[in-house]
What does this fold into?
Amino acid sequence: MIEIVVMVVAVLGCILTIMQRDLLKAAILTGITGACVAFLFQFLLASDVALTQAVVGAAIVPVFLALAVYKTQRMDDQ
Amino acid sequence: MIEFTIDTQLAALFTSAAFIVIGLFAAIFLDNIIKKIIGIAFIEEGANLFIVTLGYKQGGIVPIFLPGMNAEWFAANSAYPLPHALVLTSIVIGASTLAVMLAIAMVLYRKYGSLSTAVILGDKKPDIIKSGVIDSNEKGDKNE
It folds into this structure.
């Protein structure tokens, strides 16, 4: 039953990410979604994919996004 | 106690569908170009999750063959390991394509001074024109 909770948290993190106006917050919430997807891969019996996704989705992708936000502008001006 | 169980495979398929729908919404309807890139990353994660979910087996074991296991029992009870190998490559390629997309977004910001797609495509003028950010040979509203 805990995998259902992880799935709901992943989808909520997804929705919150695209609702943010602060792009740095959006980058950090992307990391939460990547970590939840890594747990989900572990529950789906794919341990090797879970290891790679935990490194890439929870660490490397938010750092790339935060670097891009640091080099450009932080607020989303609608 | 009420006994209700949700099939893990079906729930994971719905999760990947939600990822793809949210990513498509962000990539099509949002204005900021970094939000569009985040949406494309969500589409990739949804596709990876879909492919891994296809190899799932209810009540199975992780596909690692330990010494002492019966080979026929292992083949009948383990998850299907071929999608895992494919997705392992796809995750790394997704990270590198994300890096390339962010680099192009940074070059666009340096040229146009904004991350908005409407400004980049010329539908709207930027609110604050920073000196030195906008390229000098851009067809000029220097006079205003």
